[in-house]
Amino acid sequence: MTESSKDWESGEESGFVSIGTYRLFVTVCGSRRNPGEPIVLVFPGAGASLESWREVQLLVSHFARILLYDRAGLGQSDPGPTRASGVASAEELSQLLKAMAITGPYILVAHSYGGCIAREFLQLHLGDIVGMVLSETGAETPCQYHEMQYKKRVLGDHPLSVIRGELGVGHSRSRDPNTEDTRTRNQLEEMQRLASTVNEADLRLKREQLQLSRNTRFQNVPTGHNVHRERPDIVAEEIHWVLSSVKIAGHQSSQLSAVARMLNRIKHLICRRT
Predict the structure, then answer these.
(1) Coil, strand or helix: which one is 14?
(2) Residue 108 belongs to what H/E stretch?
(3) Euclidean distance between CA atoms 98 and 6, whole angstroms
(4) Is 16 exposed, middle or buried (0-12, 13-18, 19+ CB in 10 A)?
């Protein structure tokens, strides 16, 4: 089946989509959208392919349509004609969605450097974005509209979830109890002070992003940087919260409640395992 004959708005579809002189690899799944329902767009971190988001995709596909894609030069996608940047990648995604005839509204889900791209995309499509989930973002290359977006609270009352992996920075790794610790007391105290300083700075950067919206929640979770790999259930739960906060058709409320119960069961199972 050619890309032009595919129905990207229903069923599970994967394939290459041409945007000018090169192709991007895309996969979309989840139930067909009703009019006015958003589709979830995922922005992986630097150097990451869509494969790292498969577990989140599986969970989210039970309650929303979700699109994963490989940026130019990553995963299965062709190399792009220009050097990658936040602006170029946001424009690239805009071309991709146009080629696939996928219109808004959109919920943006970003990890790490993907947050910069998502913020650039937000600026290009302000009227189409109805919610965001930012996981471990904020410490990378800032969006060119960084301060302006905060000042204007560009998301307005649209929901925003910020996830922080609290073990990602400023956290002392556990040592092998069979290994002698040769560090002096002064060295240990200095390391603890440094870790505390880094941790406070990271927390401040993450919480700063809450200025994008008046409707927010902040999740401090016991994981490292790759929250979506370690706890895909938490990321899916935040996407579900954003979706349930968006004003959509009332007949979906019962379905979303059932999904919330399912995600809670998954979370309990993962917590037991860990």
Answers:
(1) strand
(2) strand 106-111
(3) 14
(4) middle
Closest CA to 19 of 86, 106, 85, 102: 102
Residue 210 DSSP SS3:
helix
What pLDDT was estimated at residue 208? 92
Distances (CA, A) of 44 to 16, 67, 121, 124, 170: 18, 12, 14, 19, 23
Beta pairing class for 65-69 and 22-29: antiparallel
How far apart (Å, rounded) are the C-alpha atoms in residues 184 and 190? 10
User: How far apart, in Å, are the Cα atoms of 272 and each of 58, 264, 268, 269?
Assistant: 21, 12, 6, 5
Look at strands 213-221 and 106-111 and give their pairing: unpaired
Instruction: State pLDDT tens for residues 148-166.
Output: 999 999 999 999 999 999 8
Q: Which residues make Cβ contacts (< 8 Å) with residue 223, sequence separation at least 6? A: 165, 166, 167, 168, 230, 231, 234
Whether 174 shows a pLDDT value over 70: the answer reads: no
Taking the CA atoms of 249, 253, 255 and 259 in sequence, report the sign of the dihedral they define. Answer: positive
Q: Looking at the DSSP assignment, which residues form a beta bridge with residue 29?
A: 66
Helix extents (H) in the chain: 54-60, 86-100, 114-124, 146-152, 185-208, 227-230, 232-245, 253-273
Cβ atoms 93, 27 nearer than 8 A: no
Question: pLDDT at position 170, please?
Answer: 44
d(CA 134, CA 19): 27
